[in-house]
Predict the structure.
Amino acid sequence: MSLNTISTNFLQLQCPSPTLIPKSHSRRRTFLARNANGSEPELSSNGYPSPPTTKTTPTPFPGKPEADVVVIGSGIGGLCCAGLLSRYQQDVIVLESHDAPGGAAHSFQKKGYKFDSGPSLFSGFQSRGPQANPLAQVLDALGESIPCASYDSWMVYIPEGEFLSRIGPTEFFKDLEKYASLNAVREWRKLLDAILPMSTAAMALPPLSIRGDWGVLSTAATRYGPSLLKSFAQMGPQGALSATKLLRPFSEIIDSLELKDPFIRNWIDLLSFLLAGVKSDGVLSAEMVYMFAEWYKPGCSLEYPLHGSGAVVDALVRGIQKFGGRISLRSHVENIVVQNGQAVGVKLRSGQFVRAKKAVVSNASMWDTLNLLPQEVIPKSYEDRIKTTPQCESFMHLHVGFDAEGIREDLGIHHIVVNDWKRGVDADQNVVLISVPSVLSPDLAPPGKHVLHAYAPGTESFERWEGLDRRSAEYKELKAERSEFLWKAVERAIGPGFDREKCEVKLVGTPLTHRRYLRRNRGTYGPAIKAGQGTFPGHSTPIPQLYCCGDSTFPGIGVPAVAASGAIVANSLVSVSQHSQLLDAVGI
């Protein structure tokens, strides 16, 4: 059995963490390098803050150009990895090409509006104990917390009608009875009765206990095995048999329950798509079972971080710095330096060499990491596997700042528009997610205003945009054409008081925007690896001392998954003793 198989069997996407860490730790001097002149970044031709280019004056490097571990990229996975390594008292530096940390989760400002660039649907920040999600667990280990606003519903616009969908064990039954059928009610109840007991097994092992070597037998199997066995025993023979499907596509559980109602099948596909960018036949059952436990158990709620998704990034950065780690922004990694067959550091675009005494960790995608390596050191099998891994499509984004006058006061934070069930939730321009976070965090917009982010996740083809000049009339015309469905969805959701012509900020993002700002190969959402047809790669590589974390590695795409991947890499780079001490310190 491989170590990746062990980790896969142990980690079912989200779990625990409670008490704060002891404060008896040494501190090293920390740095967070930003623009050399401290000014707001210049704007590009499409209105978004410009990312660094070859013409940008490099930011002075923060401190000595070496560390125990060099982390490439400051996405959530990279920050979680660096934070835990700092907590383990490893000397860590994170190198970020952009002017701001956070990767796809970074925030940016324009004309007094603060926008989320990526994820906005969160839960589990306040969770504690053995069933907290991976990001909450990392934050807890770093002694950080995130103030959140709680809510329990989102607006849904589907072919059958529009309604306020509430999470929880009973509210959704009312919607099903009104917009679907009594048969849909019966099937939904049958689904909840079958999978909620499975969540005990799916959440039995804390993500922070997982590592990528045989030490996992000590930190996870021995430590938490009894509780896992107990959870299986409590489920009974039938439940335990069902739990064996946790690593199979969720559609297999649906089929085994003989759920055939069209509305139920469509709704489950929508939830799968929101969670992982694939339909129910491509998402791991473990991910869906956990999500159902988070969204449909008594007393559950969704959470939005006050001050925006950037607050999550800020908390991780504070945690890194608290324990002596460093972050260097506008530090574009040109290539990974390999000597005597192993990764020894990186070379920046400025020409600066940064030595890694123990390891280099890439938070870039698998395709971008491959491009950072010298061709002569890449094993052909490794290169072929990466080049043949299918990619998810890219995004269309709409960032808008508008006046709240005339807008209904009960406007919710989240709105989901599905135009046509028959086309499938993963069809081109069919599903739109809309977030108006200023509803819960008014400081994101000037007084009396709202900030809005609408996007189509992972359904926009890069080929349509490839080779276009971003300053050309053709590009601008295509942006207007391809963003029209986003505008129509926004107008439907916000209501008659909304006028796109009066918006104070209007930004349209395309796959080229995604590639440029996030340094993502072809602007991709991530690997299109379906459950049951393949597995996400582990975290080690054929190059000694080179590791990877993020959405190109196990467990996959999504905030909880990438947080878990960063934690696994950090744990793998320290001794079992250090790892166990951290688990003791955070009380899990």
